[in-house]
Amino acid sequence: MFPPLPNPTVKPTPAQFGEQDLIRRSASNVAPPARQLTPVAKLIDTSKCIGCKACQAACLEWNDLREKVGFNSGVLDNPLDLTPASLTVMRFSEWINPETQNLEWLIRKDGCMHCADPGCLKACPAPGAIVQYSNGIVDFDHDRCIGCGYCIKGCPFNIPRISQVDHKAYKCTLCSDRVAVGQGPACAKACPTQAIVFGTKEEMKQHAEGRIKDLKSRGFKNAGLYDPPGVGGTHVMYVLHHADKPEIYANLARDPRISPIVELWKGVTKYAGLAAMGGFAAFGFLHYLISGPNKVSEEDEKKAEQLTGSDVS
Amino acid sequence: MTAYDVERGDAIHPGKPVTVDRYTGGARINHWITATSLVLLALSGLALFHPSLFFLTGLFGGGQWTRTIHPWIGVVLFFSFTGLFIRFWRANLWKAEDGTWLARLKDVLTGHEERLPEVGKYNAGQKAVFWGMSLLILILIASGFVIWDQYFAAYSTIDQKRIAVLIHAIAAVTIICVWIVHVYAAIWVRGTISAMTRGRVTGGWAWRHHRKWLRELVGGKERRS
After folding, report:
1. For chain A, how many structural domains are there in total?
2. Is residue A95 part of a domain?
3. pLDDT tens-digit map of B50-59
4. A308–B12 C-beta distance less than 8 A
5. Residue B214 phi, psi dihedral angles, 5° rounding
6. Residue A11 lies in a domain
7. Both A49 and A80 in a single domain?
8. What are A206-230's pLDDT values in tens digits?
9. CB half-sphere exposure, A195, CA atoms < 13 A
């Protein structure tokens, strides 16, 4: 068992990281930070999850969010999808294992994966609206968000949601405010089975190793860690009993990466576009300098007068 | 001869110099609504296109306002341009001399007008701008709706939105280049701008640049008289 998160002190604590620890800032550059924070991670063990949704409740409570009363759509997923208020949802999948013919109930807590190479940040046009700290947390700064929805196009996991109330994008913050004062995310704190644990990324990988060994000893020979390299690894990782088939967990991406279309859009298009527009303008400017204006001559006017009969009238 | 290059309102006023009515009041108002929309769209779009141009959002009241207003201006442009299209499409149909004119683009740029064929109300360059704008505006409005998340987010998949946003960006860059050509040509070829401001050009301008159109106008006048 991973040691539970200690209860917080009641004394006010200064934030342990902030602006000075940014390694990426959307649509702008940051100076490399003077120090490197220890990378943190949340580990979600799908094999220990009982689907109680305590994490969902804790998330709403800590972030002071209210999900509107929904409807029962006949499945346990509630709400059915992530929303601007529900930054995490449990996704329930019923899967018949073809080897054992057992019905397996796979429950995956969905939410932002805090990619090391965040597609949302790459796509964002608003300077500073999305930031990445050197501990791996990817956070949205709502004061700077313009609500364009580019982060949705950039994200390989379909996570950000735009609020129809304030037109800003919302997603899991990995409780950056709690982590900054030495606490863990609210969901991890609330999880009754330690299916969600939080610590440094190294600790989480080690803990996962023990869990995977245990699962393998129980017959889950494909148990493994989900830390997809296509996005540089993530700071929210899963222990999956069937790591060879991530898609059975409510379509978890097998090999997530920033879409090549987004790379094209935010890469060569941006620079080639500016160059093309600049090139056309420069051509016009040079052409004018060299050849001067194209003026109508006296003779042209005379010809027109002859043609229209004005010269005789 | 068929004078299908002559548009409604085109007329010659003999005198010294000769003046020629080229655009009606309606066409000019229509043009300037389109022009204003296009410039505002370019500014607000460029603000979100490259981080170094994000400051342009200040012109629209900040990022949120820029994001809100851009698609609405696009709708205005679409309807306004549709008006221009209906007015101008006939005179912009491609003719035999347009190929010759385009093949001698070097003579156009070096000012050897005498080596160019006589052209009607629009030359091949103007026609290329017209059809380029028409096609690009169609592409922009269609791709724009796909990425207008505030109202239409539910009607397309994220993959479709990614393709749409890329197409929208490329089409926007292209239309800005076409716009630069259009504006530069109007500045470079003296006597052109008055066509869209006062609606008139001089006879000499028409003789020099659109002789076939001028001849058609004179011919029509003779037939009428």
Report:
1. 2
2. yes
3. 999 999 999 9
4. yes
5. -65, -45
6. no
7. yes
8. 999 999 999 999 999 999 999 999 9
9. 23
Residue A22: beta bridge partners? A133
Q: What is each CA distance from A221 to A224, B27, B28, in whole angstroms?
A: 9, 74, 75
Q: Which domains does chain B have, with CATH numbers?
A: 11-224 (1.20.950.20)
Sign of the alpha-carbon dihedral angle for B4, B8, B14, B15: negative
Contact B165, B143 (CB under 8 A): yes
A98 and A216 housed in the same domain:
yes
Rounded Cα–Cα distance for residues B22 and A307 (Å): 17
Quote the CA–CA distance of A174 and A158 in Å, as a whole number.
Answer: 17
A170, A278: one domain: no
Spatial CA neighbour of A90 closest among A51, A46, A44: A51
Q: Are residues A128 and A239 in the same domain?
A: yes
Cβ(B32)–Cβ(B40) below 8 Å: no
A158: left (phi over 0), alpha (psi -120 to 50) or beta: left
Which structural domain, as residue segments, surrounds residue A52? 19-258
Indicate the residue of A287, A296, A313 with minimum beta-carbon distance to B190: A296
Instruction: Report yes or no: A67 and A83 within 8 Å, Cβ to Cβ.
Output: yes
Q: CA separation (Å) from B145 to A48, A151, A166?
A: 44, 17, 21
Are residue A298 and residue A172 in the same domain, yes or no? Answer: no
Q: Is the N-terminal amide bond of B17 cis, ω within 30° of 0?
A: yes
Contact check, Cβ <8 Å, B215/A307: yes
Closest by CA to B41, choosing from B23, B59, B15, B16, is B59
Mind telling me how many Å the CA of B189 is from chain A's nearest CA?
Answer: 5
Q: What is the mean pLDDT of residues B55-74?
A: 98
* Position A4 in a domain: no
Instruction: Give the tens place of pLDDT for each residue, A4-13.
Output: 777 778 888 8
**Which of B68, B162, B190 lies nearest to residue A261, judging by beta carbons?**
B162
State whether B206 and A277 contact (CB < 8 Å): no
Shared domain check, A112 and A249: yes
Residue B225 has pLDDT above 60, yes or no: no
- Tell me, yes or no, whether A10 lies in a domain: no
CATH code, domain carrying A71:
3.30.70.20
| Residue A237 C-alpha, separation from nearest chain B C-alpha, in angstroms | 23
